[in-house]
Amino acid sequence: MNPARTPGGAVLMDGEALRDRIVARLRGTVEAAGGPRPCLATVLVGDDKPSHIYVRWKHKKAEEAGMLSKGVELPGSASQAQVEDAVGAFAADPSVHGILLQLPIPAALDAERVLALIPPEKDVDGLTEASMGRLMRGLPGHVPCTPLGVMRLLEAYGIETRGKRAVVIGRSALVGLPQTLLLIRADATTTCAHSRTRDLVEACRDADIIVSAVGVARLIGPDHVKPGATVVDVGVSRVESKIVGDVDFDAVQAVAGAITPMPGGTGPMTIACLLENTVEAARMLGAFPPA
Ligand code: NAP
After folding, report:
1. Residue in 218, 202, 205 with CA at minimum distance from that of residue 251
2. Which of 7, 52, 63, 188 has its CA at 20 to 30 Å from residue 95's CA atom?
3. Among protein residues, the one whose CA lies closest to atom 43 of ligand 1
4. Is 125 a catalytic residue?
5. Per the domain annotation, does 171 fall within a domain?
6. CATH for 73
């Protein structure tokens, strides 16, 4: 990759460009196989606007990758049984290889019970107990898309992790915890910070790599960042109808060695990894040739 740079000279880690390369590669793989196309199925409950946008993009990019996709949309008033039936039908359908339950679902519903219906092979979001257990044990399985996308960005931009110090901010099962595990597996000495961390600047300022997955606009400023460090922004906040990350981009880009934009960094990579996982799901189910 011949990277663009920010005005301050940091490498701009372009998630859209990398996503497009991955989508093109997947399309080549799907066309070369000439057989059944991997199929992603989504279940969307309620009228959360960002969720609708994310799901639309997932279908659009699946199509660009030459894959099939289908989706069920249920109203926010849907019962637990209706949501479970939708996921259960995809679980039983041999033409569906990957199932994505778009989170969050309305608070009145039990997301855990719905996720538990997704077979591990079809769990392309990597969020079920089985997938999380496999990740923890180092066994083959699906890895959550957002942290996996961060690892792909680090690899693509040649960011060394071995022996480096990394800090992940956030400890959710969706992002922070699997991200911490993936960085440890990539040989980084990794700290996980969270809302009870006493001094976040102190926790971050010796890090070679910072991944922030919080959702507090512009939480991370130049004081948190060692000169030359890599800063990856996962957090999404809406400020005056604009999307803003956890990282104060304008200030931090002047200090960082590499940085992701928000939007245009980790979001597109989440979709790219979802599609990678769907092809892998079809392989696990014996419906697609091995890599
Ligand atoms: P979450 O479940 O709300 O977790 C947020 C984490 O941030 C928690 O662990 C929380 O600590 C920690 N935190 C909150 N305030 C903090 C503070 N002031 N200092 C340090 N840590 C703090 O959210 P999530 O699902 O992990 O998502 C995190 C963010 O990433 C959200 O903005 C979400 O929209 C975004 N996201 C982006 C993508 C993408 O593709 N870019 C994908 C998924 C999610 P405690 O555990 O102590 O409460």
Report:
1. 218
2. 52
3. 146
4. yes
5. yes
6. 3.40.50.10860
